[in-house]
Write a structure and sequence with these properties.
mainly alpha; Rossmann fold; 3-stranded parallel beta sheet; about 10% strand; 4 helices
């Protein structure tokens, strides 16, 4: 699920995360546009997202710099290869 790193997670972000977790759908939060904020702001955004969305599985990502790309692709591959995902969610 994509969340803009420049703002706190919204109520709809929280609702989506709860829905995914409730239905036991594997998921990860991707903080986007991390190139547009400072390291300090990124640290604060990560902390706020962990608290608000009740997850530690957060991937900071920037399409501009490519930061986080490898981690995100690895997470997607892992989800695709997960047998539960193939059987119940596709």
């Amino acid at each position: 699920m994509l969340v803009d790193s420049r703002m706190a997670p919204t109520d709809s972000d929280v609702l989506m995360k709860r829905w995914l977790d409730h239905h036991e759908i594997p998921n990860a939060v991707v903080l986007t546009k991390t190139d547009k904020i400072s390291r300090n702001q990124l640290s604060q955004a990560l902390h706020k997202s962990v608290q608000t969305l009740k997850t530690k599985e957060i991937i900071p990502f920037s399409a501009v710099t490519g930061s986080g790309k490898d981690e995100l692709l690895a997470r997607i591959r892992s989800a695709i290869d997960h047998p539960t995902v193939r059987k119940t969610h596709l």
